[in-house]
Amino acid sequence: MTIDKSIPNATAKRLSLYYRIFKRFNADNIEKASSKQIADAIGVDSATVRRDFSYFGELGRRGFGYDVKKLMNFFADILNDHSITNVLLVGAGNLGRALLNYRFHDRNKMQLAMAFDTDDNELVGTKTADGIPIYAISSIKERLKDTDIETAILTVPSTKAQEVADILVGAGIKGILSFSPVHLTVPKGVVVQYVDLTSELQTLLYFMNQE
């Protein structure tokens, strides 16, 4: 199957939504789904679904709908959700602790394997209720040396974000999900995705006001 490498960011951001929808359809024993069914499920129009899918070649036949199980496995492959992906977290503050208690693996094959914070944090040396160990950031290279972990969640103050990002890159991390509202400078080959909760809330309020 031919895949267009120049997929727009908007389409890429919907891939996990498509995967989630096809998993739900499969759980509901739906074998075929139309573009309208898929569009209604994620809140876009049918044309957007067909355009998104066109980047991946022939995923379905017009008039026949999309094979739910086939597409569920297809998006699982794209999102590398056939095997467990271990992730680490840096920053065991309020947000970090909330994420440590979030059961990622209940929905996808991702799990938080370990967490890090400053060497003097009282949580260092302890484990969460789910058994996730919290280590000192100074030991990160040693802790990652014999693991397959290449992804990190960053929940540290903005003033420390770049410093910690540099430490993560130096330890071999290739992907960072940052909750710090500052732009991070990273080498080529390292991917950063930002989650700005304040910005998202302001955008929500803007659209509410338009109504």
UniProtKB/TrEMBL annotation:
<dbReference type="Pfam" id="PF06971">
    <property type="entry name" value="Put_DNA-bind_N"/>
</dbReference>
<keyword id="KW-0520">NAD</keyword>
<comment type="similarity">
    <text>Belongs to the transcriptional regulatory Rex family.</text>
</comment>
<dbReference type="InterPro" id="IPR058133">
    <property type="entry name" value="Rex_streptococcus"/>
</dbReference>
<comment type="subunit">
    <text>Homodimer.</text>
</comment>
<dbReference type="InterPro" id="IPR036291">
    <property type="entry name" value="NAD(P)-bd_dom_sf"/>
</dbReference>
<dbReference type="InterPro" id="IPR009718">
    <property type="entry name" value="Rex_DNA-bd_C_dom"/>
</dbReference>
<keyword id="KW-0238">DNA-binding</keyword>
<feature type="domain" description="CoA-binding">
    <location>
        <begin position="80"/>
        <end position="183"/>
    </location>
</feature>
<dbReference type="Pfam" id="PF02629">
    <property type="entry name" value="CoA_binding"/>
</dbReference>
<protein>
    <recommendedName>
        <fullName>Redox-sensing transcriptional repressor Rex</fullName>
    </recommendedName>
</protein>
<dbReference type="InterPro" id="IPR022876">
    <property type="entry name" value="Tscrpt_rep_Rex"/>
</dbReference>
<dbReference type="InterPro" id="IPR036390">
    <property type="entry name" value="WH_DNA-bd_sf"/>
</dbReference>
<keyword id="KW-0805">Transcription regulation</keyword>
<keyword id="KW-0678">Repressor</keyword>
<keyword id="KW-0804">Transcription</keyword>
<keyword id="KW-0963">Cytoplasm</keyword>
<dbReference type="InterPro" id="IPR058203">
    <property type="entry name" value="Rex_bacilli-type"/>
</dbReference>
<comment type="function">
    <text>Modulates transcription in response to changes in cellular NADH/NAD(+) redox state. Binds to the promoter of the aldehyde-alcohol dehydrogenase adhE gene. Functions as a redox-dependent repressor of adhE expression.</text>
</comment>
<dbReference type="InterPro" id="IPR003781">
    <property type="entry name" value="CoA-bd"/>
</dbReference>
<feature type="DNA-binding region" description="H-T-H motif">
    <location>
        <begin position="17"/>
        <end position="56"/>
    </location>
</feature>
<feature type="binding site">
    <location>
        <begin position="91"/>
        <end position="96"/>
    </location>
    <ligand>
        <name>NAD(+)</name>
    </ligand>
</feature>
<dbReference type="InterPro" id="IPR036388">
    <property type="entry name" value="WH-like_DNA-bd_sf"/>
</dbReference>
